[in-house]
Amino acid sequence: MALKVGLCILIIVCITTGFCDAGKTSSYTRSSDTSSDMPADAFPSPKGSNAPEQVHITQGDRGGRGMIISWVTPNQRHPNVVRYWKANDPSDVYKAHSQIFSYRYYDYTSGYIHHATIKKLEYDTNYLYELGSGDAVRQFSFSTPPRPGPDVPYTFGIMGDLGQTYASNSTLGHYMSNPKGEAVLFVGDLSYADNFPNHDQRKWDTWGRFVEKSTAYQPWIWTAGNHDLDFAPEIGEYMPFKPYLHRIHVPYRQSGSTSPLWYSIKRGPAYIIVLSSFSAFTKYTPQNDWLEAEFKKVDRHETPWLIVMTHAPLYNSDNYHYMEGESMRVLFEPWFVKYKVDLVLSGHVHAYERSERISNIRYNITNGLCTPIKDQSAPVYLTVGDGGNIEGLANDFSDPQPFYSAYREASFGHGLLEINNRTHAYYTWHRNQDDEAVVADSTWFYNRFWYPKDETASF
Ligand SMILES: *[C@@H]1O[C@H](CO)[C@@H](O)[C@H](O)[C@H]1NC(C)=O
Ligand SMILES: *[C@@H]1O[C@H](CO)[C@@H](O)[C@H](O)[C@H]1NC(C)=O
Ligand SMILES: *[C@@H]1O[C@H](CO)[C@@H](O)[C@H](O)[C@H]1NC(C)=O
Ligand SMILES: [Fe+2]
User: Which GO terms describe its biological process (predicted)?
Assistant: First the structure.
């Protein structure tokens, strides 16, 4: 009884003071810079004959001892070799050969796209690698992650919907100026080639050259978005994700997946599940079957942080793309809550938003229970579709701000997730108009398995 009275008083206080309406719509006024694409000549091919270009790397195995090295040679298939060695032991040089792919799309023929998987790397080690030959040798470097374990610190950058505008360049430059990020969780929509006539595939090439300054040096963990579909029957292009699947290779087989569009990896303290919003995911489909089996494989004693990536957000309060993640939410949200997913990262909406821990899994058609509720077993949903692509900002938020939305702002930027140990991760979001040191939104995330502390600031 006393509890009920207390609750009533609390509710009355909330209603009269508005104190409980904790969500923040940032009043920050962004500049009205248009985000036009950078010209192709801002990203010339590197010097030398048949020089390797568009170099990008991603984790190449389940646990972080492999790397897939990808690059394009414009004129000739060969050389198709990557030479690599430990930075502190240059006398011991290893070699791996690439598999070579190319594709045609409408009137375009790609260069030779190389994917080489290098294996049995040592954990927590700096490597150098070299591509090309003759006058076109190019050297890069990367660091391997620590062996997966509950208390190894690791920091991920978070970006999405990047494109190749001046704003995109600002986002990437800001991220790179921060020494903390060790790998990027990329939530989909890469080049935006499909915004140009006949999905101008040269835009994929300029994009590969644009992002190389980061993608050649640290792994980007890839998610596919709708702008990566390039499905265009009107010009005879019927294969969904054709350019994406040729250009991006991921270690999907190691997680038992049958498609590169959904897969998982373990990296340091994190178990990362990548989903495809634009592939079939209803019951009985390959993606659904795979995900159901996948959650059972997660060992939070080995990888405490469970992170899901998907392009279309399941919770977002912007009027752009509103409810496009709804069918996936109906199917997958019960698992996210049951298995205590820490974070769901998405893009698609060209703005930034962070949710409260909420769920909406009680509804069964007839019971009327169709409103989200606070749920400390539920993930936080982050929408980071604010990379800065040619389509501009999604600045039409629903009003009033729904209670499930903790912070939202229509500015370009990127996120950073600093995992300290099995219980604590510090998360920040940085808008492009500020110096990287300025933190526009920040919060501690407490691990849902090891330390499911109530994260709600005022409720
Ligand atoms: C992209 O940003 C970098 C700084 O991060 C700058 O040096 C470069 O000039 C920019 N490129 C273009 C085309 O604006
Ligand atoms: C739906 O929920 C209501 C209320 O909890 C319950 O009575 C009903 O049996 C449920 N229907 C089904 C099909 O589970
Ligand atoms: C985990 O990290 C947090 C934040 O840095 C710290 O306060 C806490 O003491 C750490 N836990 C352990 C067991 O070291
Ligand atoms: Fe999108």
Answer: cellular response to phosphate starvation
Which atom of ligand 2 is nearest to 366's Cα?
1
Ligand 1, pocket-test mutation among 169, 177, 207, most atoms within 8 A of CB:
169
Q: Cα(428)–Cα(431) distance, rounded to whole angstroms?
A: 10
pTM score of the predicted model? 0.94
Q: What share of the chain is helix, strand, coil (3-state, %, to 5)?
A: 20, 30, 50
Instruction: Give the pLDDT score at 202.
Output: 98
Nearest atom in ligand 2 to the alpha carbon of residue 364 is 1
DSSP string, 342-370: -EEEE-SSSSEEEE-SEE-----SSS---
User: Annotated catalytic sites, by residue?
Assistant: 321
Q: Do the Cβ atoms of 174 and 430 come closer than 8 Å?
A: yes
- The residue contributing the CA closest to ligand 2 atom 6 is 367
Render pLDDT for 67-125 as a digit per residue (tens, 0 to 9): 999 999 999 999 999 999 999 999 999 999 999 999 999 999 999 999 999 999 999 99
The 3-state secondary structure of 104-166 reads EECCEECCEEEEEEECCCCCCCEEEEEECCHHHCEEEEEECCCCCCCCCCEEEEEECCCCCEH
